[in-house]
Amino acid sequence: MSFASVSIHPFKVSLIAVLVGFAFVDCASAQETADIVMVRRPQNRREVRYVGRVMDYAAGTLRLRMKTSGSVRSLTSADIVRIETPRLDEHVKADKQQSVGKLDEAAASFTAALALEQRKWVQREILASLTRLHLRRGDRMAAARAFVELTNSDPKTHHRGLVPLCWSNHRLAPADVNQAKGWSTSANYFARLIAASMLFNVPSERAKAMKSMDEIAGSGRGLSDLARTQLWRGRLVDAKPINRTEIKLWRGRVALMKQRERGGPWFVIGKAHSQRLEHEEAAIAFLWIPLAYSLDRELAAEASLEAAVSLQKHGNLPDATSLYRETAERFAGTIFARRANDVLRPPGK
């Protein structure tokens, strides 16, 4: 096991290896090694260093038994800058592999670390890393499985901004439909909303999915905004046209949402403008995602492509061409990058 720093923000976890002047320690002794929690107080922005042992980190609160006094201090996720804690070698390896783009290898190493790690709070941090990694790989179903496991353990997780919802109407594989149906009756509201967002793409399941979204929107469990904005997708397939007043109301609601939750809703707003043939407004809405929302690479890639298409339809060919090129380069390896390349490729090539 190595000693490392887990940089934890309210909705972002970055694991950074740091040297501490000693070599390998076994699992038993590592559990007794002090953890270091760096906290930034909002009133003065000054960082404070706490040393002790993390007892748990759940529901947005970290409980730390202080090394000197033995007392237990509670720290909120919003104030935590990073945590330095011992990590298994597989955990350290996963971060290194991810940093150099070896994503499949990193996924295997994170999974191995998860199986070996005994601390529940670190297991949840690994699951958050797996969720983020699978989204980067474009495997939304694997991300969903990791996130459901995380939220089964911590229903009020500080990683709620990672919830991998579907916002685009892609076809699901039969196995994914079955998995989503299983989640749709879960006591875990995150699992139910993920399932509803997926099953919306299955016409025979759409009515049930929207009913579930509506129930979650009124549940008061912290997912209301995301559930309500998921319901907007129903308007995109409704026979009744979307009017400008409705879109204006949508924009107002998104402005009140946390930034980590805005990516998907902006995608739906972009689609609504596209339906109305308001291509410039659509491009602006789509562009918010690749510019300001990095959690979901696949969604950002699709939004970037949609923005390029909208600019082309608006008649702005120079900017559209530039954005097609950027989509192809920045999101290489995605289907949306391939589609952008197809547009850029000269006829007959």
What would you note in describing this structure?
With 349 residues, the protein is α+β, with helices and mostly antiparallel strands. The protein has three domains: 2-137, SH3 type barrels (Roll), CATH 2.30.30; 165-240, no CATH class; 243-349, Tetratricopeptide repeat domain (Serine Threonine Protein Phosphatase 5, Tetratricopeptide repeat, Alpha Horseshoe), CATH 1.25.40.10. Helices cover 55% and strands 14% of the residues. The protein has 15 helices and seven strands. It has helices at 27-32, 89-99, 103-116, 120-137, 140-153, 174-183, 189-199, 206-217, 224-236, 244-256, 263-275, 279-292, 297-314, 317-330, 335-344, and strands spanning 2-8, 13-17, 35-40, 47-58, 61-66, 72-76, 80-87. It has a seven-stranded antiparallel beta sheet. A hairpin with a 4-residue loop joins strand 1 (2-8) and strand 2 (13-17). Helix 11 (263-275) packs parallel to helix 13 (297-314) and helix 12 (279-292) packs antiparallel against helix 13 (297-314). The radius of gyration is 22 Å and the shape is globular. Residues 7-31 have low confidence and may be disordered.
The percent range for helix content is 40-55%
In quaternary terms, these chains amount to single chain
Task: Kindly name the structural category.
Answer: alpha+beta
Question: Could you name the ranges where pLDDT drops below 50 across 5 or more consecutive residues?
Answer: 7-31
